[in-house]
Automatic annotation (TrEMBL):
Pfam families: MFS_1. Keywords: Cell membrane, Membrane, Transmembrane, Transmembrane helix, Transport. InterPro entries: MFS (IPR011701), MFS_trans_sf (IPR036259). Its main location: membrane. SUPFAM superfamilies: MFS general substrate transporter (SSF103473). This is MFS family permease. It comes from Stakelama sediminis. The keyword Cell membrane applies. GO terms for molecular function: transmembrane transporter activity. GO terms for cellular component: plasma membrane.
């Protein structure tokens, strides 16, 4: 199915959208990773402070999803989606100019104002993602045939994680000055590609848009969650992203303080995770042969939990670098324990990708085409709440002096809950 879907990359109805979202994910991750690695390795020198900073950055990026997802879903279902893409990509240029300036100021030693501007850019990028997120999935049923939607969704998901891979790797190797320039250039290319996306006008009745963030969010969720399989799919995805939030927050400090490796190793290990999710996306599409089903999701996330426990054990037993030193990439790759660590991390990512991709396909195929953007937006509201809880969990556990390796056990426990929900979804759809 995925191999057949690759043919979509030759077509105007898919390629500009795919490229635009790919560049957006790349740029978002390049900036955020550059910021986190800079703060973790060059500004702070305390594992708890590093985790708290990462949690704060994660939380700020999610605030717009709480406040604006309902509005973004309404706009996407009542306005030409291609037009919204152009608005969003224009805004991205300004955001990256602001954030890049913050990076440069922090690098020059003006830490307070620089970090403030960087965190501000993270907040603005959250707004960017809030308005773009529903569109990249909701536009697919308008531009693709019904039997192409799963393959197209898989390509978008795999492309997103490959973009994260590239952004992560480059963030670990490029200078702060280079990152500041590159994010602005990529935003410009994304703006050009966004203008090539084919029109995707409103297909249902015109909506009376509710601009109140509280009531519109409540109505959005209420209108969506009463559909049982949508409710279960959104809950399962939310638990996955709670798990993801904990991993995102914990990972850089864990690499620095437990695996005692430098920022390039941190980017390498996150890159391995990104490759794994992309591989998982391809595998599950092949196994399901185009059928949208949660058949393999429970087993996939249970396997993910088992691998997370294994990774926690391996981290505890990892032989650290001598005091005052960090392993370089070559030192880490030649470390006798590193191969097992990287294979386990890859396994976590593959099983995670196998779990979540079919669930996203449920969101865009369960409802009519004029409701898809609002459905994805409702999912984003619930997901963002779950991720905030994940970030807060890290802050609480850090305050209780729980180590990063021990936090991984909380992730494994959440995998069991996600498996239970996915099993209920599978039964509800049989």
């Amino acid at each position: 199915m995925m191999l057949n879907a690759l043919g979509l990359l030759k077509e105007r109805r898919f390629l500009p959208l795919f490229t635009t979202q790919f560049l957006g994910a790349f740029n978002d991750n390049l900036f955020k990773t550059s910021m986190v690695l800079f703060a973790t390795y060059q500004v702070f020198n305390n594992p708890a402070v590093e985790s708290n900073f990462n949690a704060l950055a994660t939380g700020l990026s999610l605030i717009p999803f709480f406040l604006l997802s309902a509005l973004s879903g309404q706009l996407a279902d009542t306005t030409d989606k291609a037009k919204i893409i152009r608005w969003v990509k224009t805004a991205e240029i300004g955001i990256m100019l602001f954030g890049g300036t913050g990076l440069m100021l922090a690098r020059a030693g003006y830490h307070s104002i620089g970090i403030g501007m960087m965190l501000g850019a993270v907040l603005f990028l959250g707004v960017h993602s809030t308005f773009f997120g529903p569109i990249k999935y909701a536009i697919l049923p308008q531009h693709l045939d019904e039997d192409e939607v799963l393959g197209g969704t898989g390509l978008v998901e795999a492309g997103t994680y490959l973009a994260i891979l590239l952004g992560t790797v480059i963030a670990g190797w490029i200078s702060v000055e280079g990152a500041s320039i590159l994010v602005l250039c990529v935003a410009g290319i994304g703006w050009i590609m966004g203008r090539l996306v084919l029109p995707a006008p409103r297909v249902g009745p015109e909506l009376a848009i509710n601009f109140n963030p509280v009531t519109s969010s409540w109505r959005l969720i209420s209108a969506t969650m009463h559909i049982r399989r949508l409710f279960l799919a959104i809950c399962a995805i939310s638990f996955f992203w709670t798990i993801g939030a904990v991993l995102i927050v914990v990972f850089p400090p864990l690499v620095k303080n437990v695996l005692t490796a430098d920022e390039r190793v941190a980017s390498l290990t996150i890159a391995i995770f990104s490759v794994g999710v992309a591989i998982g996306s391809v595998i599950i599409n092949s196994m399901l042969k185009g059928k949208i089903s949660a058949k393999y999701s429970p087993a996939s996330v249970i396997a993910m939990g088992i691998f997370v426990v294994a990774f926690s054990i391996e981290a505890r037993n990892f032989t650290p670098a001598p005091d005052g030193h960090l392993y370089s990439v070559m030192d880490f790759l030649t470390h006798p324990q590193s191969v097992l660590v990287m294979l386990t991390l890859m396994a976590i990512a593959i099983t995670g990708g196998m779990f979540v991709v079919p669930l996203y396909a449920f969101l865009t195929t369960t409802v009519t085409k004029d409701q898809t953007a609002r459905t994805v937006a409702a999912n984003n509201v619930v997901n963002s709440g779950a991720m905030v809880l994940g970030a807060l969990l890290v802050i609480v556990l850090a305050a209780l002096h729980v180590s990063n390796a021990d936090m991984l056990l909380a992730v494994a426990a959440m995998c069991l809950i996600a498996a239970w929900i996915a099993q209920k979804l599978h039964r509800a759809c049989d």
